[in-house]
Amino acid sequence: MTIFLQSLDYQLWHIIVNGPRMPTRTIEGVVSPKLENEYNDNDFRMLQLNSKAKHVLFCAVGPNEFNRISSCDSAKEMWDLLDVTYEGTNQVKESKISMLVHEYELCIRNLILTKNL
Question: What is the number of helices (H) and of strands (E) in the chain?
């Protein structure tokens, strides 16, 4: 999926990983969101990329996943939710790795014991 998204538009992948950049303005040192009538072409392009990324993700998932991610506001939220759903949190990933290493070590130990018999 990563390669597919990057092949469509690398900025699309950037929006998914980093989240959309909401258009802002700075007045007297205070940063605030721009009003829609203040958006420039670049602001519209960034917002369009987020919508395009959401569309691609919607089209790529099945009905169950669609229901899970349809309430997300950004493509990043959708991607992160899918990532946790299918890959797990970092703690879950570390636990899986630890379990697989342990199983591997037991398998090697059993092979060595079998060979020595």
Answer: 6, 2
Q: Pull the structure tokens for residue 79.
A: 């991607």
Q: Tell whether 112 is covered by a domain.
A: no
And the tokens for 37?
Answer: 């009538």
Residue 117: the pLDDT is 65
pLDDT less than 70: residues of the chain? 89, 92-93, 117
Q: Which tokens hold the place of 5?
A: 């998204």
Domain extent for 78: 1-88
Residue 17 near residue 79, CB atoms below 8 Å: yes
**31/83 Cα distance (integer angstroms):** 32
Per-residue b/e over 22-49, b at no fewer than 16 CB within 10 Å? ebeeeeeeeeeeeeeeeeeeebeebbeb
3-state secondary structure of 44: helix
Domain count, the chain: 1
The answer to whether the predicted template modeling score (pTM) of the entire model surpasses 0.85 is: no
Q: Does 115 fall in a domain? A: no
